[in-house]
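Researcher: Next entry: DUF7144 domain-containing protein (Streptomyces drozdowiczii).
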Amino acid sequence: MANTGSAPAAPRGTDGSHHPARTGWTAFAAVLMIFGGAMAIFQGIAAIAKDDVFVATRNYVFQFNLTGWGWIHLILGIVIVLAGCALFTGAFWARAVGVVLAGLGALANFAWLPHYPLWSIVLIAIDIFIIWALCAGPDRAKA
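Model: Predicted structure:
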């Protein structure tokens, strides 16, 4: 029987249950988390190695040690990548953890602004898209 004009049904598994991991927004958030986490890992490695890419702005409100920030970004990036992978399972806890970690990532990149402003703004935007995609999730199709 053909579907006439109604919205497509939410993806269902073989047992009839909904699988949020199979919705577009959750997959979008998972991919962005893996990408954003990988970029944070690279950012952290570069900061730990005292790369010349980063500059310290004088008289900025947030003045932190570059190596310390490198470790923060490295650890946060690894956790964000793992949470992004967990989103593909469709677990609700992974969505909640994803929102929290994306928020922490946005805050970390906000404090990172004096070291690498353009990249920080890009990663803040990615974190905001992640939060939006996880909060818009599978229930959006029902509206």
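Model: Note for the record: Confidence is low (pLDDT under 50) at residues 6-10.
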